[in-house]
Amino acid sequence: MEEIILNGKSVGKYHLGWSLEELKNEFDESYNLESLDNHFTLTFKDMKFWVLRDKDMVSQIMVFGEYDGKFLDKIGIGSTISDLNKHGIKWAKEDYVYILPDYPGICFELEDIDEWDESIAPIEFISIYNS
């Protein structure tokens, strides 16, 4: 069963707002923990989490690689801007990130492919965050 991506809320069973300990308790696989200035990142096979140091809470979740969950049961890793258009989902580009104005708290990054064409480049990363 595919996991559901909910903008500004969750990716599958993983939720924004969880503490670092809550997050660690949900995984039985190994992960890479990186300590940065304002947050920690935990990277698993096909997911990455940002945990704010001062608030001890998950502020962003990114999926990539083989992750097969979907947003609106339609859009996932490997989908394209053409797919968004086909489903009538409005999008806007901010630098290298694509946001969905009607769905705050979610963004996409496209894969850098040869013979670049924004409409057919596959989505490589999907992030949800507190909007």
Question: In brief, what are we looking at here?
Answer:
9% of the residues lie in helices and 37% in strands.
Number of H- or I-type helical stretches: 2
The arrangement of helices and strands along the chain is: EEEHEEEEEHEEEE
Shape: globular
- The helix/strand class is mainly beta
Which percent range describes the beta-strand content? 35-45%
Output the strand order for the largest sheet.
4-5-6-7-12-11-10-9
Count of β-strands: 12
Straight-line distance between termini? 28 Å
Biggest sheet, open or closed, and with what strands and sense?
Answer: 8 strands, antiparallel
Instruction: Give the C-alpha Rg.
Output: 15 Å
Helical content stands at under 10%
- The poorly predicted ranges are none
Mean pLDDT: 93
Main features:
single chain; 131 residues; mainly beta; 8-stranded antiparallel beta sheet; 4-stranded mixed beta sheet; 9% helix; 37% strand
How would you characterize this protein structure?
This protein has 2 helices and 12 strands, in the order E-E-E-H-E-E-E-E-E-H-E-E-E-E. It has helices spanning 20-25, 81-86, and strands at 4-6, 10-11, 14-15, 32-35, 39-43, 47-52, 57-63, 70-71, 92-94, 97-99, 106-110, 123-129. The radius of gyration is 15 Å and the shape is globular. An 8-stranded antiparallel sheet has the order 4-5-6-7-12-11-10-9, with no helix packed on it. The mean pLDDT is 93. With 131 residues, it is mainly beta.
